[in-house]
Write a structure and sequence with these properties.
The protein is an alpha+beta fold. The protein has a single domain, classed as Orthogonal Bundle (Arc Repressor Mutant, subunit A), CATH 1.10.10.10. It has 3 helices and 3 strands. A 3-stranded antiparallel beta sheet has the order 1-3-2. Strand 2 and strand 3 form a beta hairpin. Helix 1 packs across helix 2.
Length: 71
């Protein structure tokens, strides 16, 4: 997941992205890389984003699914 976030945020000067953008641009690739499609992809992505936040890789920008890559 962190590689998908880095790929998405890489081309943006401010590193800001939304959960929806992540799913739209990286969703299929993430499923292929993990070998699963998952029964609840939105919850899985939300959980993974929270773990990246807790690890100091991203930060919440707002309460509407917007994040910033910081590490």
């Amino acid at each position: 997941m962190s590689e998908a976030v880095r790929r998405l945020a890489k081309g943006r000067a401010d590193g800001i992205f939304t959960r929806r953008e992540l799913l739209d641009t990286e969703g299929k690739r993430m499923c292929i890389e993990t070998g699963t499609s998952g029964a609840t992809p939105m919850q899985t992505v939300s959980r993974e984003l929270q773990q990246l936040r807790d690890a100091g890789v991203i930060e919440f920008v707002d309460n509407r699914g917007t994040y910033r890559l910081i590490a």
